[in-house]
Amino acid sequence: MIGRRDEAVLRTTVDGAVWIGHVRRADQAGSFKLPTALAFPAQTAPLPEWPTAIDAPENTSGWREIRYAAEGDVGALHFPFYNGAMSTVQCERLTAAVRLALARPQRVLLLLGVPTSGATAST
What we know:
Layout: E1 3-5, E2 8-13, E3 16-20, E4 22-23, E5 34-35, H1 36-39, H2 41-44, E6 67-71, E7 74-78, H3 88-102, E8 108-112
Parallel strand pairs: 7-8
Antiparallel strand pairs: 1-2, 2-3, 4-5, 6-7
C-alpha cells in the first residue's frame, strides 16, 4: 500500500495501482464490508494522504468519493457513497463540498448520490 484518500487505500499492482474503497476482513468470521482504512487502521494510519480537490478535472488520476463538475449554469455534486450509506465523516465532507459548490457561479446545483450514465452535467 502506498497511500490513502479519505478511507480508501492505493495499492500497487504488477502494472500500476488500484484504489480499494471497501474490504471484508478474511481473518474475522462474520465481518462486514468496511471502508479499507477502518478495516485496517494500524496498517493504513502511517500511509501518506493523497488529497484531491472535489472540482479537479475529470481526467485527474485516482479515486474520488465526492466530485464536482459544471457545465454552463449547472453544477453537479456527485457522492455515490457505498450502498447509499454515509458515515459522520462523509456527511461532514459532503457538507463542506455543498458549501464549496454553492460558492461557485453556477445557478443550479444537482445533488447526485448515485452513479450516473452521463445524462447530466457530470461529464
